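ESCALATION

Customer reports they have been waiting on this structure for their group meeting. Please prioritize. Original submission:
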Amino acid sequence: FAFMANYNYEKDIELGEEGEYRVRLDLESVGGEFVEDNKDNSHDLIMKMPIRGSSTYKLVSYEIKTDVFCRPDFDTGNIFIEFASRGKDSGITVTKAEWFVTYFKHFREMWYIKSDKLRELISENEFKVHNDSGDLGSNTKGYLIPRYQFKKYFKVRVIPKSLTK
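Update from on-call: job pushed to the front of the queue and completed.
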């Protein structure tokens, strides 16, 4: 998980699962129905989502990353998009999810982008690469995307305080 506060794998897993739960609640608030969560690197969550303007639904997969590094008193202004960890491809490189979501816990924001659009954004820009992120010894690598400069490519949802308790 990118930029976790603990640099401890077990604690970071807990934070990641909390983020996945928050995204699930957000998607349920717009009519989605939980189908399954997943523990491999292909995706984190599958939801049955309503198709706009229709009475039908489709299954949609999500990759979810929780960022607790950025907070009101310390904000890098970036979204960290992991692409390698522990000497292997990870994150955006391997996900099969349709959507990639970054949950900024301390800002109560979720930044949604289609995974293919994110890959396109990365290939068309020369984003800085940050090394040695994640838990100690993981040598997690990722792109630093200036989030306000590229905000127009994301669907940003602010989580009501009632959903964060």
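Sent to customer with the following note: Residues 9-29 form the longest helix (21 residues).
Escalation resolved.
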